[in-house]
């Protein structure tokens, strides 16, 4: 599977915004999303922009302290330096974009081995949700949104008390089963450092690094925050 990372970024932003109900727009040739539930500001996204493009995006980002510029790249050092030159600081450099061929994923609903846990699935405004509950507690959860033939996975979380019980894998499998209600051929997500281990185990592979920059410390984990 050969990827055009610029195209993957477009798809990911559309799916991520779809999962969260964010408004999107263009900033030149780059996508942007309004993070209405967190920073209440625009976040700009670009894959390997030129120095001039980076400077333009950095200037837009610097207009408001809560704005964030997120760069997808395999040259983290270059864009960290460009950030410094344009008045931005790196707020996160540990995430990666990951991709999977959905043909390698199980299309069947997974089975919970623990009788104390219960899976609930739902769909709202095109967003598929999977939640594992233990009585009234949410043990694990996640969501997926399909753009074209790509399933974008988001907010995969396991509560601290329920970690190391395979619930992250279970949620991913439950969401994949829902994604297969559509004609999907690939999966896409942004992974935290912890998530990268889980997704690699499930057959996902890294496309590139994710660098978040801001004039403040507003940067958050895009995969969950």
Automatic annotation (TrEMBL):
<feature type="domain" description="N-acetyltransferase">
    <location>
        <begin position="85"/>
        <end position="225"/>
    </location>
</feature>
<dbReference type="GO" id="GO:0016747">
    <property type="term" value="F:acyltransferase activity, transferring groups other than amino-acyl groups"/>
</dbReference>
<dbReference type="InterPro" id="IPR016181">
    <property type="entry name" value="Acyl_CoA_acyltransferase"/>
</dbReference>
<keyword id="KW-0808">Transferase</keyword>
<dbReference type="Pfam" id="PF00583">
    <property type="entry name" value="Acetyltransf_1"/>
</dbReference>
<protein>
    <submittedName>
        <fullName>Acetyltransferase (GNAT) family protein</fullName>
    </submittedName>
</protein>
<dbReference type="InterPro" id="IPR000182">
    <property type="entry name" value="GNAT_dom"/>
</dbReference>
